Structures are given as C-alpha cells and as structure tokens.
Amino acid sequence: MSEYREQSVNDGQETGMTPEAARKAAVEAALARLDLPARVALLAGADMWSLPANERIGLGRLVMSDGPAGVRGEQWTPDDPSVALPSPTALAATWDLELVRRAGRLLAQEARRKGAHVVLAPTVNLHRSPRGGRHFECYSEDPVLTGEIGAALVSGVQDGGVGTTPKHFVANDSETDRYTVDARVDERTLRELYLAPFETIVKKAHPWGLMAAYNAVNGVSMTEHAELNNGVLREEWGFDGVLVSDWTGARDTVRDALGGLDIAMPGPATVYGEHLVKAVHEGLVPEELVDDLARRVLRLAARVGLLAGAPAAVPPEQLPAPVDGEALVRELAARSFVLLRNEGGLLPLSPATAPESVVVIGAAAAEARIGGGGSAQVFPTRVVTPLEGLREALGGELRYELGADPRTFLPPAGFARRAELLGGDGVLGVETLANGSVRWLGALPGEVSFAELTGVRVGGTLTAEVAGVHQLSVRGVGRFTLEADGVVLYDGALLPEGEDPAAAFLNPPERRFELELAEGREVAVTLTYTMPEASAFAGFGLVSFELGHGAPVVTADELIERAVEAARTADVAVVVVGTTEEVESEGVDRAGLGLPGRQDELVARVAAVNPRTVVVVNAGAPVLMPWRESVAAVLLAWFPGQQAGEALADVLLGTVEPGGRLPTTWPAEEADCPVWQVEPTNGQLDYSEGLFIGYRAWQRRAGAAPAYWFGAGSGYTSWSYEGLEARLAEGGGEALAEVTVRVRNTGERAGREVVQVYLATDGSDRSRPDRQLAGFAVVEAAAGAPATARITVPRRAVQSWDAAAHAWRTNPGVHTVEAGPNAGERPLALALVVPQQP
Ligand code: BGC
C-alpha cells in the first residue's frame, strides 16, 4: 500500500513535463539500466500473483488479483476476506454506468487494501450460449451493453489508481476444453460481436492491461495471435497497456513473444525467463521486441505508482473518496434485481407484514449463493442471507423450510478447524481453518515451503447433535487417508476428471462415507492429504482439498411435504431457488438449464397451495422456470453478493424498486436456445451461427418466443412511451444521431426505467441482424411525471464489417430508430435516413 505513496514523488511538475511525459522518461531511464536478462525478468511472474521487484531501478513488486466480483488478494481462503459484490451479470442488469463505475471504485479500494495493483477484470466475453460455465461472470449477449458496462467498470477501477485486465481476449465464451479449443469465428462475426466490447473498452476507458485467452482463434492460440494482439489491439485501436497471459496460458517462448504477449503468468516457471534470453541470443526473437514488452510492463508499474521517479496515473491526493463497501453492495444488488412477474401487484409486500404470516422456503434462503465458482470467487467476512435479511426487516422470527436441497456435494465440515503441515520430521506448522476446506496456492501458511511439505492433516471432533447416519466426504485430487476414531474409512487416490490443470481446485471429485452415531457421540476425525511427486497445476505449489460433513437429513419427499404444509397456512410464501457451485463455475459448461434437484417440483407444489407465492431466483445465468406463469411473482436476484438478504428485503418490502433489466434473453425451453453446442468437434468450436446469438437470433424465429426478452423487467410502477425524436449528428464523426425519448411514469410511485433504443434495418440485407441495441439510458420520475432520455447513437450502429475490404462500411438508406422497454417491445419508431458516408 505505502508503495503507492512513497514512490509517486515526482509528478512531473519540477521538470515541467506532463505526468505522462515524466512516466515515459522514467520508463526509458529504467530500461536503459537493465541488461537483457533483467529486462526479460520483468516479463514473467515471480510467483502466483506478482511480478518481481527490481531494487536497482526502484521498481516495486507488482501484484495482480482476481477478479470481477471482488478482490481476493494473494490468498485463496476465507482467512483473507474481501467485499463480495454481486455477479457481473447483476452489474450488467443495472444498465447503470454511473453505478457500475462506483463498483469499480470499490474494487480499486479493495485492491489497495489488499496490496494489489491490478485487478484481473472485467470478464467481457459474450453470452453466446447460456450453457457457458462463466456466463455469470460475463455481462451480456450484447456487445454494446457489454462494452459500455465494461468501460464503466474499468474507468472506476482506474479512477482509484489500480489497473485492470479486461479478459479473456478473445472468443473464450465457453469452458469445455478451454485450454486448447480452437474457436472458428469468421472475421465479420469477430469484429461485430466478440471483439466489439474490447474495442469499446480500449477506446473509451484505456485499460492499463488486457488478458489473453487460453483458447485459439482460427487456428492460432490467443497468447500468440500477432494479428489480433499487435495488429488489431495495438495498431488499430491504440491499446498501450500490457497483455498478460491467462494463468498458465503462455506455452511457446518464441510464438508468445512474437505474438505480443508481454507477461507470462504465473511464475516462476514460465516460457519466458531464461528461455526468452536464449531465443534472443539465437536470433529467434529480436532484442528490440523484448524491449517493447519490458517497456510496457514498466509503463504499467509507473501508472500504478511502483516505479521510482514516475508519477502514478492517479496521485494520492486525487484518489476518490472512500466507498462504504457494504452499502454499495446492497445498493448494487437491489438495483440489479429483475422483476419478471408481479400478478395483482403482490409486490412490494407491506412493510407491516407480520413475520408469522410469511414462510421462507429453500436451501438458498438460508445459505445464499452469493457468487459463482472459480477464480471470480471471494470470501466475505459476513453474508446476510435472505432469511436473515427478511427477519431483520420484518422484525421477528420467520417460519423456514428447506423444501429441497439441490447440493450435490457435502459442505466443508464446520468442526474441522485444525490443519497440520507435515514434513519428514513431523509437524512443520499448525494453521487454524474456517472449516474443513484447505486452499493454498503458490504459498503456504507460516514459514513452511512446498519443498519440505509432505502432506497436510486436517481434523477436529465431530459431535453428533442429531442421532442417525452422518456423512463424511473427501473432496479433492490426490492421495487421501480418512480416519474416524483411528479407524481408516478411506485410503486411496482421487483422480481429476478431464485435462484442465485447474480442475484440481475448481471441480474436484468427491467420495462419501457414512457413520451411524448416537446423539451426543464425539468422534475424532482426520483427513490426511499426501503431497504428489509433481504439482498437479503446471509446476505450482498447490494444496486444495476438503473434508465435508453432512448431518442426518429427512427424506427428499418429507422435505417437500413440510414446505407445502407450511405454505398452505401462510399469507405469503417466499421460495428461494437457485443453482449450485457445481452448476455455475469456471472450468465446466452446464449440462442443462433446469434448476438442480427437486426445486421445480417444490415451487409447483407450493404455488398450488398458496396463490401468494413469490419465487426468488438465485442464479447467475438463465434457468428454466416451467412454473413461471403459475406463481404470483418472480424476482431474479442473480448472485447478489454479500448483502444478499438486505437487498432482498429492501426490494420485497419496497424500500427500493427492483431496478434491473435482463442483459440476456432468457429461454423458455432448452431446445429453443439459439446456440446450444459448446463442445468442440476435433478440437474446433464452430461459431457457425455467425452474428445470430441472443436476441439477434430470437427475432428471426418463427414459433419460438423466449420466456423473457433481452432488456425485460419492471419496477413497481408503469411507464408509457410518449415521444421519439432523432437528429443526425453533423459531420462523419463517431456519433450518428442524437435520439430523445420521452416517457411518463404512469403508476403511483416514483420509479426508474431503462429506456432502450434499437436500430432496425429495412430488411433487405438478411446478413444483418434485424435490429440491434444502439443505446440506452436510465431515467427516474415521480408518479405521473415525465422524463426524457437522451441517447447518442454511435455510427457503428449502422455499420457492418466488410471482410473483403477489411474495413467498416456504413449501410446507407432507411433505418428505423425504435424505443422501448425491451427487445421484444418497442412502442415508438421513426425512420432515419443515413447518408452514404463521404
Ligand atoms: C482464469 C482467469 C483468472 C486466472 C487467475 C484463470 O484460470 O481463466 O480468469 O484471472 O485463472 O486466477
């Protein structure tokens, strides 16, 4: 932290230089003092998260940290908690650039608190298919919305003097075989869809970094893709930041260097280092090219205030005012919730609702899923669950029923809090855990080194609070011994599924064991993990496994019966349904879109006995909702972050309106999805649908309508669309037209509307989507009052990429400007005649 302040002494003023010129001078001076090996040393991780310091040139250690929904820092455990924001899909659902910028500032504040200089975010791949495992981590199916939200986030983080790496450049839109898959995407589709958000972000927000994806595009691995990295990104768009590999994504010294990859992460074992020095000596990589890579890394260091003599991009006195993290996370979540159905105006519930008249049902109500799985995961100090939030707001105990438990893995054992680090001579160190989950990447607690570590033993005393069959589980990859009161229950090896090196900690297998226990019985349980000969994760020190425990449960039938009985006599039933970590996570794509377990049955049965059933959907990505028209209200809460329950109470009781609108079309049936196939064939994933993903595809469909269109959702009031005007902008600049949309709040309370403007073609060129989002704005108005949205439509909205000419081409002629509340509902339209561009 202090490094920012101590080293940003020269703001250029003494020398009369602009800060930028002063940074440049400091970078060149530093570079001049380094020989080739020292320059090369700047280009690869010193460890899992950092680039090495170099005292001679006054260069500090530069730390990077995941990620889009919070800043985890250098540890991957609950021991180092972070503020957990709502999932990126939720951020996009706000459609509110100012709010997202504030989220970025919170990330910067968290990064500074944790000593990180670069946040590995945002994820701006597209929602090509709802099956994408990282769907929750990306923003939208639309490149305009993705680009704008991404640019706002980057601006917010960088306002705080912390760098970003929009990722994963490019076409990393699903997870199956993500290290090796070759995305086959035609040039026009790449330009108009997948590159577009990166282009917007680079041009509008000037990120100091970008992350190259694991996958290949049209046969070339993205870390090596000179045409896209050097050509499009740097020369065409003017990107002047660093290009960092995705973790372990750099695989070839020469091709990566020539392909424009500045930083190979993580380290210390990378394809750069001595290999790159050798390649230069052999004449395979020009030395000046290495200088360019090193220059960019030093520029990043200068920007974040880590290079002596260089003014930081944001001097300490210009840092934004501190953000109240909990308050902002609560606001973001409520603003992101999407109200999809509200029959008879059931919501908001009266704040005077008696707590005993409400029954809350569902596993996610008591144990909210606050974020998706994988590298986006952070560990908050505290989570306010929906049950807690509602209890607090209504001021009394609520009835609660589990109803259905969709989890497929046992939770980490709460009793297992002692971890012993084992070496040849016995116990090297002891660590207290939050629970039976161990996750150490790159570094171990205390002074213990990976070289001396032979194993880790986790354990504690299980006290049977309930008599019956208790379950213990081992989850991880490697060799394990599980013992209960000295009796060996398991001694064997668990193997990973698939070839993803990160699978060992992202999606490890589980084995379960049963113990019949009398009430009050105490059992000493230990799980010992033996270190493998070679690290499972690309030469990296990694310990990641879990001892799980499940207390006896009643049968699934009984769980549902109990919930139905409670709902029958309640005035209101709030059912919280959702996905699980296994369903929505990095590293795997989803098999289907159904809610896991018996949750659909639970909702249908509760709704059958209680007409005032509110279903809250706790998922980061589309799920099927076969019951959606037989319940009174459907509220989509995404992965709402750590203040989940408070935000939910705010919205259910109407303190705050649900402000979100869908950033992606939600299907009614799996079979209707425009893109389903995410598994490559012979290593290739063909983007054969071209431009037709999301609403661009749905609007061509005869017969199948989505459950909810892109943009859909409502607050607690109603709006009429009353007037539309469009004026062509002067000259041939980036702005095409200024559009004005007049709306009126026709309901009885103040509200907020996301006004959307689409541009439709005249239909003569079928290669172009019928209509595309051209701009949007958030307006607010009191009951009965009008509001005006002013939206600048960019010229790009009427352009197509001409692959033959290798250039953007304006489509002249008649376009229709449409305005409305979602892609399926556009009550206002007017013709706009676009002249041929000079
Ligand atoms: C993910 C990146 C992430 C990195 C570091 C990779 O597996 O794809 O998004 O930033 O790990 O955790």
Describe the structure.
It is built from 20 helices and 35 strands. The strands form 9 sheets. It has a 6-stranded mixed sheet with strand order 10-25-24-23-11-12. It is globular. By secondary structure, it is α/β, with parallel strands linked by helices. Among the domains are: 13-315, Alpha-Beta Barrel (TIM Barrel), CATH 3.20.20; 418-550, Galactose-binding domain-like (Jelly Rolls, Sandwich); 719-834, Immunoglobulin-like. Helices cover 23% and strands 25% of the residues. Bound molecules: beta-D-glucopyranose. Beta-D-glucopyranose binds at residues 66-67, 120, 167, 246-247, 375, 502. Beta-D-glucopyranose binds next to loops.
Indicate the topology:
Blueprint: H1 2-7, H2 19-32, H3 36-41, E1 50-51, E2 62-65, H4 88-94, H5 97-113, E3 118-119, H6 143-159, E4 163-164, E5 182-184, H7 187-194, H8 196-205, E6 209-212, E7 216-217, E8 220-221, H9 226-236, E9 242-245, H10 253-258, H11 274-281, H12 287-303, H13 325-336, E10 338-342, E11 358-361, H14 363-366, H15 386-394, E12 399-401, E13 418-423, E14 426-432, E15 437-441, E16 455-463, E17 468-476, E18 478-484, E19 487-494, H16 503-506, E20 510-517, E21 522-530, E22 542-550, H17 556-569, E23 572-578, H18 599-609, E24 613-618, E25 633-636, H19 644-652, E26 684-686, H20 694-698, E27 719-728, E28 735-745, E29 751-760, E30 771-781, E31 786-794, E32 799-802, E33 807-810, E34 813-820, E35 828-834
Parallel strand pairs: 2-3, 3-4, 5-7, 5-26, 6-9, 11-12, 11-23, 23-24, 24-25
Antiparallel strand pairs: 1-2, 7-8, 10-25, 13-14, 13-16, 15-22, 16-21, 17-20, 17-22, 18-19, 18-21, 27-28, 28-31, 29-30, 29-34, 32-33, 34-35
Beta-D-glucopyranose binds near residues 66, 247 and 502.
